[in-house]
Amino acid sequence: MGKIICIDAGHGGTDSGAVGNGIKEKDITLKTALKAGEVLKKQGFDIVFTRVSDNYINLGERCRIANSKNADLFISFHVNSAGNSQASGTETLCFEKNYFAELVQKSLIDNLGTKNRGIKERKDLAVLNGTRMNAVLIEMAFISNFDDAKLLKSDLFIDDCVVSVAMAVCGYFGIKYKSDGEKGDSEMKKSINVILNGRKETVDGYFADGKNLFTTDFLRRLGFSVEYDENTKEVIVDNEVKNIEVIADGKKETVEAVFKNNFNYVSLRALERIGIIKVDYKDGVVYVNSI
Fold first, then answer.
1. Rounded alpha-carbon distances, angstroms, from residue 83 to 144, 145, 185, 216
2. Cα separation of 228 and 45, whole Å?
3. pLDDT in tens, 47-99
């Protein structure tokens, strides 16, 4: 193919970068950069690194490495931080907005599910104004945000970042990204964002044949009973009693229900307890009266 990609792991050595929630930026960026190099090599690209270990490389030298190798693209991995611990999400920085930056940001958001902070022009950053090729600086997530930091500690999240960027690089050069997952060419290990009872959770899974696949541990978190029968070698998933919210005469009430076949079934006694109906049982007949 002959295309050269320069990959830059932000910070390093005496420059730790941002620090928060038990992790350092320089460690996350190095891990991500090395993995990105491996994945892009498998796609047929030639890779140049600005650093491959925990050492300090000044900004001018990073640009010199990329320029001297006549790299076709420059990708710098970073981790964001803010005084406001609520700040979160992913953004792509570039000298001026361009097609490659758009591909990178879209691919990251599509695969990570993090807050989309968009593409931002930064003409003041050395690695963006000192490189002669299209260059992006990726802020993967906020180390200062508890939930984002939890993602940054996850190898699955790092893998998703790497694959997202590799897909963008392939798209930029008009070639098809070749998946190389652990279980075959059509599969890719993933961390998958889901909304669980109104709260965003990240669960482990696989992306295979266009589908997100979850482990049975995720079903347990949804309130199902999951057991394994040693004799039949079958996984048994049982519906459990759940609490659901009911609006009774404008007032929100919580009642027990059983979820079966995609429906919530509420007992009449539960509805009687919140004052919606009056229930009597006599001679095998259930008598229901409204109140």
1. 8, 10, 42, 38
2. 45
3. 999 999 999 999 999 999 999 999 999 999 999 999 999 999 999 999 999 99
Contact between 212 and 190 (Cβ < 8 Å): yes
DSSP 130: S
Residue 70 is classified by DSSP as T
Please identify, in words, the CATH class of the domain defined by 4-172: alpha beta
3-state SS, residue 150: helix
Q: What percentage of the chain carries pLDDT values higher than 90?
A: 57
pTM of the model: 0.64
Q: How many CB atoms are located within 10 Å of the residue 102 CB?
A: 16
The predicted pLDDT at position 61 comes to: 98
Total residues found in the chain within this entry: 291
Task: Report the relative pairing of strands 234-238 and 225-229 from DSSP bridges.
Answer: antiparallel
Position 185 scores a pLDDT of 41
The Cβ of residue 20 has, within 10 Å, a number of other Cβ atoms equal to 19
The CB density around residue 16, as the number of other CB atoms within 10 Å, is 13
User: Domain boundaries in the chain?
Assistant: 4-172, 187-238, 241-290
| Residue whose C-alpha is closest to residue 146's, from 84, 198, 221, 193 | 84
CB–CB of 92/43 below 8 Å? no
